Amino acid sequence: MAKELKELTSRSVNYAQWYNDLVLKADLAENSAVRGCMVIKPYGYAIWEKMQCQLDQMFKDTGHVNAYFPLFIPKSFFSKEADHVEGFAKECAVVTHYRLKNAPGGGVVVDPDAKLEEELIVRPTSETIIWNTYRNWIQSYRDLPVLCNQWANVVRWEMRTRLFLRTAEFLWQEGHTAHATEAEAVAEAEQMLNVYADFVENFMAVPVIKGVKSASERFAGALNTYTIEALMQDGKALQSGTSHFLGQNFAKAFDVMFADQNGSRDYVWATSWGVSTRLVGALIMAHSDDNGLVLPPKLAPYQVVIVPIYKNEEQLKQIDENVAGIVAKLKTLGISVKYDNADNKKPGWKFSEYELKGVPLRLALGGRDLENNTIEVARRDTLTKETLSCEGIENRLKDLLDEIQQNIYKKAFDFRASQTREVNSYDEFKVEIERGGFLLCHWDGTPETEELVKNETKATIRCIPLDGDKTPGKCMVSGKPSKQRVIFARSY
Amino acid sequence: MAKELKELTSRSVNYAQWYNDLVLKADLAENSAVRGCMVIKPYGYAIWEKMQCQLDQMFKDTGHVNAYFPLFIPKSFFSKEADHVEGFAKECAVVTHYRLKNAPGGGVVVDPDAKLEEELIVRPTSETIIWNTYRNWIQSYRDLPVLCNQWANVVRWEMRTRLFLRTAEFLWQEGHTAHATEAEAVAEAEQMLNVYADFVENFMAVPVIKGVKSASERFAGALNTYTIEALMQDGKALQSGTSHFLGQNFAKAFDVMFADQNGSRDYVWATSWGVSTRLVGALIMAHSDDNGLVLPPKLAPYQVVIVPIYKNEEQLKQIDENVAGIVAKLKTLGISVKYDNADNKKPGWKFSEYELKGVPLRLALGGRDLENNTIEVARRDTLTKETLSCEGIENRLKDLLDEIQQNIYKKAFDFRASQTREVNSYDEFKVEIERGGFLLCHWDGTPETEELVKNETKATIRCIPLDGDKTPGKCMVSGKPSKQRVIFARSY
Q1: Which end of chain A is more exposed for a tag (fewer CB within 10 A), N or C?
Q2: 0.80 cut: is pTM over it?
Q3: Is residue A283 part of a domain?
Q4: Same domain, A62 and A163
């Protein structure tokens, strides 16, 4: 164990390596035999399930329902929306045949007689197949709004992949809504941005900046893309959720019209919005340290682990009994707890293991604790320990979990504050961007300037913030007028 | 509405058409633009979600964890287990390319330069990719058992499809477990069969026969396939869940070995088990009638619907207030309720709509009810109505929901009993099989007899029952010795 932990590369030595080590060693995910596709291991999946559960509730609380649309999309659908095809119909998995047959020399080969008339694309996103479906669902204003979400897998044939952050197949949710008016669709897109921000800040404990994307960073087919941007510990930004106002683009491409109260017909207004298993990557990178994961209590698969320290079977039995009482009390408060009294591993090994796995609170109960009716409580976020009375321990632990949730958020917030700064000249920018972080700069609003900066510094406009300082100024590159500062950063 | 309802074909006229009408009209699912792939609409998906939620809890209660494995499987993996390839690597979706490019005349075409070295198969089931993964997870007995489940989509290129019952893409869960001993793996396979039977009987309210499949009906690669078989209203059987004891076949194919306590190495023992969105089809066909769906309360998206009957806005306001009190009380008892006071549809329309959608209890509250503090309660299962006092209504409704759950089960149980009979000669069999139902017959245990019966009557051995009469006898076809009666039926 000590051995394994030492193998976790330090963040300061190689952040990318640290991340990869951690994902593997904390049993979150691993690469599969299929290039670019990951296996999400049970501990990693348990975190994703907690995220799903919370997001799903938030979607339902805002009036959405779940549905399921086909994995495959006819190739021709991608060509129907001009911008969309540019963005999505390129690096994708193409199904061309529907049968294998036995090969003469053993094994199987693709049956050339089973070629599809039209190739099918494994969905990289589902706007096209969904809007093709909505055409039959929507005739009148009475059928609106349609507020569907789906939990699904999607495939984008990425060349350079990283576990959770960028994989060929990933899991996500995609909301697709249809509205009678532009204003309603814009309000929906903004509402879902706020839902995402609420989730990421209050459950993942990661502060985000809400903003809109520049035209060149917009979703292919959108009129406006809202985004939340988070800052990772290495000073790089991570786009954590996007919500798109699609205008009438997809309604026009798939001929989805509705009759209003007066019987006049118009195209339907659309939004789409999604977050993915990428959020697990963000969660890891935002909080974890050289000892392993640091999980916010609200998303930890178990919030408390209890480890017995005993000299003999008799003592273990006594500890088992005491712990059973504590576990029962924690459960009444809705706290998830694991009691690890497996005898094939030593306490020290277990301590390191749960530290690696980011369990927010680790309790240890030994012989002296039995005598004193106490228990040792170790916090994962601060790595501090204290010995507490078992009397009323459940309420104290509940408070501690709340404290940890807040403390993790505060730490990430303070870090971001320390890494966010105004930059006023391009020369300064070129120096500052090497130090990472969010750089607040004036930009003239042109794609030319944006591209120049990207090519020269690998920094992109993460977003034009919705909140905060809106003072106009002059573009740091061109000197032309700028409406407000925007956020530049290097990003995942 | 009355119009729409009349369009629901009667079961006695055309059962298959009735089923298809019902799936479409109750807004459960529809065919998509992709051949054989369905769109699961929100109301149908809500039923599936309730199923998922309950099953997931039952899996976790029996020690399983969720994980996620890749959608794609390298073609060569299928050839590794000799029987498996015969069963699964034939009618499947084959990914051969990973890029599209703009076509000269507009649109997109497959880029011939982006051909995969090895084709990828969209998973029809995941034994191969999972056992290839388990090889790295399992070294010693300490790593066992591995008890993973995944919720996923799978694709089998079916030529003749029917909504929910047989679709090219469907949703399911697949459990894949690894064990140190044969006995433990067999016990796991049997445990999961019992979990499925428990779920189908106690939540879906569909009685099932537990049994094992004959060799020719086994899962490709299994040593033994356990099954639960249900009887639909048209007298056809529907296989509702299977659990497979896989022996060491996949461990040998993917070289998964473990060291036991003494350090000696052996191949790992395996099981797999799954149920799918097909269960939604079973649920529909088992209980519904010519008026529409009949849903068991435990799986109904909402258990109670309340419809106001009012003369004017003022009266509606009063009803709204009264209903708010009832809704609050129902929610404290965990009863899901929808209050439909939308003013664009008449009460009669709503009544038929909720009958069509199978809502277990429909409440109507009008002017006279306001005066008398009463409410009209209509049961979907019996189509009976009674007027009840609003005083303590919540407890009465809770009891009624329990009664409905039991009554639906009893009705299905009695129907099955009436359709299950012993048949002792093949001549009698040929007559009886036309009447449908489960036929209990002696069989000599040979695949030849089984195939003869299948070719001549389209009936298959649904299972060799685990419980019930085990008296030996003589095969109805060959006259050779038979160990016990088996169940023959035509099936979905």
Answers
A1: N
A2: yes
A3: yes
A4: yes
Q: How many domains is chain B built from?
A: 3
pLDDT in tens, A362-387: 999 999 999 999 999 999 999 999 99
Q: Distance between CA A335 and CA A394 in Å, rounded?
A: 9
Domain-embedded: residue B114: no
Percent of chain A, pLDDT > 90?
Answer: 92
- Which of A393, A415, A437 terminates a domain? The answer is A415
With contact defined as beta carbons under 8 Å apart, do A271 and A245 qualify?
Answer: yes
pLDDT one-digit tens code per residue, A271-303: 999 999 999 999 999 999 999 999 999 999 999
Q: Which of B42, B72, B91 sits opposite A67 (nearest CB)?
A: B42
Q: What is the pLDDT of residues B89-141, one digit of tens each?
A: 689 999 999 999 988 888 899 999 999 999 999 999 999 999 999 999 999 99
Closest CA to B178 of B236, B251, B230, B118: B251
Where residue B332 sits, what CATH number does that domain have?
A: 3.40.50.800
DSSP character for B292?
B
- Interface check for B106 against chain A (CB to CB < 8 A): the answer is yes
| Collapsed DSSP state (helix, strand, coil) of residue A411 | helix
- Based on the number of CB atoms within 10 Å of its own CB, is A171 exposed (0-12), middle (13-18) or buried (19 or more)? buried
Query: Hey, how many other C-beta atoms are within 10 angstroms of the C-beta on B342?
Result: 10
Nearest alpha-carbon partner for A162 in A311, A361, A23, A314: A23
The verdict on a CB contact (< 8 Å) between A34 and B73 is yes
Segments forming the whole domain that contains residue A410: 297-415
Q: Residue holding tokens 């061309």?
A: A96
- Residues B30 and B48 occupy one common structural domain: yes
Summarised one tens digit per residue, pLDDT across range B154-166 is 999 988 899 999 9
In a domain, A156, yes or no: yes
Alpha-carbon gap, residue A255 to A266, rounded angstroms: 10
Same domain, B342 and B477: no
Q: Is A152 left (phi over 0), alpha (psi -120 to 50) or beta?
A: beta
Mean pLDDT of B256-261: 97
pLDDT tens per residue across span B332-389: 999 999 999 998 889 999 999 999 999 999 999 999 999 999 999 999 999 999 999 9
The mean pLDDT of B435-463, rounded to a whole number, is 98
A76 contacts on B by Cβ (under 8 Å) = 107
Which one of A81, A98, A119, A143 would you mutate to disrupt binding with B, by most B Cβ within 10 Å of its Cβ? A98
Identify whether B145 is preceded by a cis peptide bond (ω within 30 of 0): yes
Q: Does B418 touch chain A (CB under 8 A)?
A: no
pLDDT at A1: 38
Contacts of A122 in chain B (CB under 8 A): 71, 95, 122
Which chain A residues are within 8 Å of B136, Cβ to Cβ? 30
Considering the domain boundaries, does residue A225 fall inside one? Answer: yes
Q: Examine the domain organization and report whether B410 and B438 are in the same domain.
A: no
Residues B432 and B402 in one domain: no
Contact A42 B89 (CB under 8 A): no
Contact yes or no for B66 and A120 at CB 8 A: no
- The last residue of one of the domains, among A384, A415, A446, is A415
CB atoms A98 and B99 under 8 Å = no
**Could you tell me if B336 and B429 lie in one domain?**
no
Q: Does B72 touch chain A (CB under 8 A)?
A: yes
Q: Return the pLDDT at A3.
A: 44
**Distance from A317 to chain B by nearest Cα, in Å?**
23
Contact list in A for residue B142 (CB cut-off 8 A) is: 344
Interface test with B, best of A40, A100, A134, A143 (most B CBs within 10 A): A100
Domain harbouring B249, CATH code: 3.30.930.10
Please confirm whether the linkage preceding A145 is cis (ω < 30° from 0). yes
Q: In chain B, which residue's Cα lies nearest the Cα of A149? A: B42
Residues 19-48 of B with CB under 8 A from A: 30, 32-34, 37-42, 45-46, 48
User: At B144, phi and psi to the nearest 5?
Assistant: -110, 155
Set of chain B residues whose Cβ sits within 8 Å of the Cβ of A68: 39-40, 45, 48, 171
User: In this predicted complex, what is the ipTM?
Assistant: 0.96
Q: How many Cβ pairs closer than 8 A exist between chain A and B?
A: 186
